[in-house]
């Protein structure tokens, strides 16, 4: 689900963290649902007033979710709960330390399948290799392992929301 609020000028603003003040309007994290809501005037009906829906609302949601995923992976890295690089990730997978595998969306599906093997670890692929690499101070990173816990759960949830808007969430 994605929460929306109105700013003081009556513009619809996505509240991805769920912390902005005001009465929230909720929609499923799905591009088709958003499109239908905009066409049918659902925001104006829910707010009981005239509202302005920005034409780039979907792009704002995608950018915001991408930023949130990148930030959450950064938090995990700084807390030593995330590593990148094929060999390090493989070591974490073998030892059972990986609670989530974050793969580059532009990475090879065949390589991803070889890395995961028969392991029962959730896999998401929300960001390109250049963005994942920037989190770790590298040019690119294709494989990232995140330790089990709240951060891995939050990353998986945000990746699922992003997938609803057309970007891949899992392999």
Major sheet size, sense and barrel closure: 4 strands, mixed
Structural class: alpha+beta
Order of strands across the main sheet: 4-7-5-6
Q: If you consult CATH, what is the topology of the largest domain?
A: 60s Ribosomal Protein L30, Chain: A
**How many domains in all?**
2
Q: Over the alpha carbons, how many angstroms does the gyration radius reach? A: 18 Å
CATH architect. name of the largest domain: 2-Layer Sandwich
Kindly report how far apart the N and C termini lie: 21 Å
- Globally, the shape reads elongated
How many beta-strand runs? 7
Compute the average pLDDT: 92
**From N to C, what is the helix and strand string?**
EEEHHHEHEHEHEH
Percent of residues in helices: 40-55%
What top-tier CATH class of the largest domain fits best? Answer: Alpha Beta
Number of helix segments? Answer: 7
Proportion in β-strands: 15-25%
CATH superfamily of the largest domain: Ribosomal protein L30/S12
Contiguous uncertain segments of 5+ residues: none
Observed structural traits:
171 residues, 7 strands, alpha+beta, 7 helices, single chain, 60s Ribosomal Protein L30, Chain: A, three-stranded antiparallel β-sheet, four-stranded mixed β-sheet, elongated, YlxR
């Amino acid at each position: 689900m994605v929460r929306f609020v109105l700013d003081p000028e009556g513009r619809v603003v996505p509240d991805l963290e769920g912390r902005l003040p005001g009465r929230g309007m909720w929609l499923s994290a799905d591009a088709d649902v958003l499109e239908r809501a905009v066409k049918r005037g659902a925001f104006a009906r829910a707010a009981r007033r005239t509202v302005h829906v920005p034409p780039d609302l979907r792009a704002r949601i995608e950018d915001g979710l991408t930023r949130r995923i990148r930030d959450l992976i950064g938090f995990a890295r700084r807390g030593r709960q995330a590593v990148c690089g094929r060999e390090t990730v493989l070591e974490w997978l073998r030892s059972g330390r990986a609670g989530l595998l974050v793969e580059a969306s532009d990475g090879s599906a065949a390589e991803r399948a070889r890395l995961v093997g028969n392991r029962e670890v959730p896999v998401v692929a929300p960001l390109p290799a250049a963005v994942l690499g920037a989190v770790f101070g590298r040019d690119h990173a294709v494989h990232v392992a995140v330790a089990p816990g709240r951060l891995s759960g939050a990353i998986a949830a945000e990746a699922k929301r992003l997938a609803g808007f057309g970007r891949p969430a899992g392999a």
